[in-house]
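Question: Send over one sample?
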Amino acid sequence: MPTSPAPKRILYVENGIGYGGAIICLRHLVRNLDRSKYIPIVVTGRTGPHYQEIAQEAIWKHIPDRHIDIVGAHRLLDPAKWPDQVPGLRFAINQLLARTDDLFNFLPFFIQLFWTAWRLKVNLIHANNEPLCNRAALLVGSLLKIPTVCHVRGDQDGSRLMKWAFSLPDRFISVSHWVSKSMQQKLQVASENIDVIYDGIELERLNLNTDGAEFRKQYSIDKSDFAVGLIGLLIPWKGQELFLDAARLLRNKIPHLKMIIVGGTPNDCQAYEQMLRQRVVDEGLDDIIVFTGHMSKMETVYNGLDVVVSASTSPEPLGTVVIECMAMGRPLIGPNHGGAAEMIEHEKTGLLFTPREANSFAEQIERYYKNNELRLKLGNNARQHALKTFAIETHAEKVQAIYKRLIQA
């Protein structure tokens, strides 16, 4: 009697800035892998309670990737003017930071990852973020002659270093057609090496009937309040400053307005959160703006909000917020660029505003406020579209088809 082949080991490497959409989508994928064919092993550069939960779903290992905060150093030095007062000083500082990053961050992570992949006899490496921040994983794959897949979730700048990093993976998964086109145009990645696969979510796990009153009560949001929520990590390009601009424009137009900023703050962005909170105080928005920090029960958040918004100032590939919000059938507003524009059909499944323009953003919020029927209609339409587009089963099947081709090649 023939025996089934042993399951192949897939090493997932997550080097994102914090616990956000990328790793949430990875967890959905890992949970839905066909365990008779694949064994997931997840390595994360960061740790904490939410990362440690992964150990309940897969083999999980934390390998630190940031012993020295080079990103934080750049955030302090890049806007400073004093390095430009001495010719060549800024270049020298940047080179010193780069070599420090290589020696104290990249090298230790690379060595431990190489040992892990070799010891566990990994069959394929799946980098969960763009190639440059995952170059260690891709180089490990190259040295061990293991096929590599890179999940690209955002726009790239087309630099020489970025082009080199994009030459490493055997295959790319793009989260949207917009991201795929960006890779082809800026980095000359051949279209035949890219699979566009929308992120999947476990639709059956989303409780549409969750009572949002729990969320509103927790943050003192009355039944009569009109609650607008921006959900996402507190990082500058997610658009929290634009959200505050819109709040200032709407404060005298919408009675009982509440603007909720939902999301945790990566360690690198603590100063950014402090700046946002200071703006709220300086501009007298204390009675409108609410900060919640990280939320784990997202269904209560979505159902507790009257409107959900995505306000990214840079084109976002295809945010998890857009996917989850549509699946929950909630009224949604997004910027008319990137993945949001690809997924939201204006006035059919949501509303779009002109990117980075507070007036346009505020106008769409006000439209929803004045028209409850529009909110219900577009929310229902979004739900039907999401059911057809974002099923995790479809996502997992397409990703596993890539694994099968690469491992058998």
User: Anything to note?
Assistant: The domain at 8-200+391-408 is CATH 3.40.50.2000 (Rossmann fold). The chain has a mean pLDDT of 91. The chain is about 45% helix and 15% strand. The longest helix spans residues 89-119.
